[in-house]
Design brief:
Number of domains: 2
CATH superfamily of the largest domain: Histidine kinase-like ATPase, C-terminal domain
Distance between the termini: 8 Å
Number of strands: 7
Shape: elongated
Structural class: alpha+beta
CATH class of the largest domain: Alpha Beta
Order of helices and strands: HHEHEEHEEHEE
Helix content: 40-55%
Length: 259
């Protein structure tokens, strides 16, 4: 029911949002065309009139550009909502979480490299060889891993840009087998999470990334999947300027509750 409602709302938002994004781009093009048209007609205007026209056209271009950037972020949120609403019906099957975690690391890493070819990070893997297969929907749990890993990679990348050569980005990923559950920990040596925002980390649409760089849905959706659907736990520890470590606990062979 909730998935259908989410999909319906997302579709209703997407149509007017397409108009916003398309007309923002068109407005920028029209402003540039008008600038080009007026370029050879400076003599028809006084200095003050020309300055006034230039200011108006520059403001129009800048405003349309801002509208476009916020529109693209909204579009990204809508796409995330649609993706989440479609992902509920997958079949749960016995899954090797070590393999799934390793694949998620590769996907997240090369996704970051695609955005910035200079990006690099040292990854330590400590996978428990005694890890037992767990009954999960691989697509959903993979998304949880990718969301958390991607956030960690983003944080170490930002810290590297701030500090430079004196800082070595690092991520440590562990899996551990317990009698009644599997535990996954993902630790980065990035900027950490300030005390003021720790309570908001799992809130929908909350993000510390710049406009257009994040939807604020990744950790919220991950929390819903792990905690609400699988009756597991998703927690984190952090120290500002030093590290953040997320810990995912999944019960063994429990079907959990369908959303």
């Amino acid at each position: 029911m909730l998935g259908s409602l989410t999909a319906g709302i997302a579709h209703e938002i997407k149509n007017p949002l397409n108009f916003v994004n398309n007309f923002a781009e068109l407005s920028i093009e029209l402003a540039e065309d008008l600038k080009a048209f007026l370029k050879g007609k400076e003599n028809n205007f006084s200095r003050d009139e020309k300055d006034h026209l230039d200011k108006i056209l520059n403001d129009l271009s800048a405003n349309a550009d801002r509208i476009g950037k916020h529109g693209k972020r909204a579009d990204s949120i809508v796409r995330s909502m649609l993706e989440h609403s479609r992902s509920k019906s997958g079949e749960r099957r016995s899954t090797d979480l070590n393999k799934l975690l390793d694949e998620a690391l590769g996907l997240a890493y090369y996704g970051m490299r695609a955005q910035d070819s200079r990006f690099n990070v040292t990854v330590e893997k400590h996978f428990d060889e005694m890890l037992e297969p767990v009954l999960v929907e691989p697509q959903k749990i993979s998304r949880v891993f990718i969301n958390i890993i991607s956030n960690g990679l983003y944080e170490v990348h930002q810290k590297k840009q701030e500090i430079g050569a004196d800082y070595a980005p690092q991520m440590v990923v562990r899996s551990k087998n317990f009698p009644d559950h599997i535990e996954i920990s993902i630790r980065d040596n990035g900027r950490g999470v300030s005390e003021e925002i720790r309570e908001k980390v799992f809130h929908p649409f909350f993000t510390t990334k710049p406009t257009g760089s994040g939807t604020g849905l990744g950790l919220s959706l991950s929390y819903d999947i792990v905690v609400k659907e699988y009756q597991g736990s998703l927690t984190f520890g952090t120290r500002v300027g030093e590290f953040t470590e997320f810990t995912i606990s999944l019960p063994k062979n429990r079907r959990g509750r369908k959303p």
